């Protein structure tokens, strides 16, 4: 379980108060997903022993089951190898080992093809386009970002949030996929992605502060831009999260009154609320808050 809000943590920070959303759900195929994760971690030839150990205790089953609670069993289990390798690839980048991260590119692409093969063709094409956008994104050095707004928009363009949302729709066999491109839906998805990114950065700050490489998140960027202490930067980012959350819920309520977008709002809100719920509970995040310095 996560620490109590206000509990002391490293770098003079106290554990933030980000309340769970009431609508959080867990995928009914959780047990099947856990088994597939265990098989993938045990048999994947691309993992180092330390990475297998990390993944074994990471409770990624909670990640899959909370972020995509409506996705079918075959679709969700097929998504596991791609996501597991993506997590390892990102961790290698965070450690500053770009060559080892790049060594996984072909395997990640191959597993994505396998995952898309069980989805409807139109949905698979949409996810493939989102993946191509991420792969083609120009990586911006953290020192060149001049505001938190610019940072959030940059992350939205390259962190795979759109892929996650497209998969939520495709894996649940929804028919509204093309409506995700509508301008009003785009604004809602952007706010949803901003909230997911901020929750990740706020709750993952101690872990990322201990990493090598260009692993700047919203907290460290706020420090760079303002000269704030880690706690002051954390408070600013928590305030930004609450501010965006107000805009998000206002937009969600307005779109939910539209018959063509109501299901999309429900599905994407479950992805956001599940992301917040699991981020607070995954060991890779909360274990770094336990020891204050």
Task: Write up this protein.
The structure is a single chain. The chain is mainly α and 293 residues long. 66% of the residues lie in helices and 0% in strands. The chain is built from 14 helices and no strands. The protein has helices spanning 30-43, 49-56, 60-67, 73-94, 98-102, 105-116, 121-136, 148-158, 161-171, 183-209, 218-226, 230-256, 262-281, 283-286. The longest helix is centred in the last third of the chain and has 27 residues, at 183-209. The protein is globular and about 50 Å long. The protein starts with 29 loop residues before the first helix and ends in a 7-residue tail after the last helix. The model has no long low-confidence stretch (mean pLDDT 92).
Keywords for this entry:
293 residues, mainly alpha, 66% helix, 0% strand
Structure, briefly:
With 293 residues, this protein is mainly alpha-helical. The protein has 14 helices and no strands.
H/E element sequence: HHHHHHHHHHHHHH
Q: Low-confidence stretches at least 5 residues in length (pLDDT < 50)?
A: none
**Ends distance:** 21 Å
**Residue share in β-strands:** under 5%
Could you give a short account of the major beta sheet? none
* Overall outline: globular
Q: Count the helices. How many?
A: 14
In total, the number of strands is 0
Mean pLDDT figure: 92
Which class of secondary structure composition applies to the elements? mainly alpha
- Rg, rounded, reads 18 Å
Helix content: 55-70%
């Amino acid at each position: 379980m996560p620490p109590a809000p206000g509990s002391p943590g490293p770098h003079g920070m106290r554990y933030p108060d980000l309340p769970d959303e009431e609508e959080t759900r867990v995928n009914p195929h959780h047990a099947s997903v856990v088994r597939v994760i265990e098989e993938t971690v045990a048999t994947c030839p691309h993992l180092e022993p330390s990475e297998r150990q990390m993944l074994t205790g990471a409770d990624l089953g909670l990640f899959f089951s909370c972020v995509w609670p409506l996705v079918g069993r075959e679709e969700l289990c097929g998504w596991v190898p791609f996501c597991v390798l993506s997590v390892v690839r990102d961790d290698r980048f965070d450690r500053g080992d770009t060559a080892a991260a790049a060594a996984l590119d072909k395997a990640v692409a191959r597993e994505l093809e396998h995952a898309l093969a069980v989805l409807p063709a139109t949905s698979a094409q949409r996810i493939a386009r989102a993946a191509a956008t991420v792969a083609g994104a120009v990586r911006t050095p953290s020192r060149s970002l001049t505001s938190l707004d610019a940072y959030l928009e940059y992350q939205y363009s390259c962190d795979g949030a759109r892929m996650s949302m497209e998969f939520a729709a495709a894996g649940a066999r929804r028919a509204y996929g093309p409506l995700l491109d509508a301008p009003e839906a785009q604004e809602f998805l952007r706010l949803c992605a901003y909230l997911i990114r901020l929750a990740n950065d706020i709750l993952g700050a101690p872990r990322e502060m201990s990493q090598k490489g260009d692993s700047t998140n919203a907290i460290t960027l706020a420090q760079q831009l303002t000269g704030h202490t880690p706690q002051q930067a954390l408070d600013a980012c928590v305030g930004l999260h609450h501010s965006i959350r107000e805009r998000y819920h206002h937009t969600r309520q307005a779109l939910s009154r539209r018959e063509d977008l109501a299901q999309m709002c429900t599905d994407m809100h479950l992805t956001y609320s599940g992301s917040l719920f699991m981020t607070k509970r995954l060991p890779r995040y909360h274990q770094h808050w336990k020891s204050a310095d």
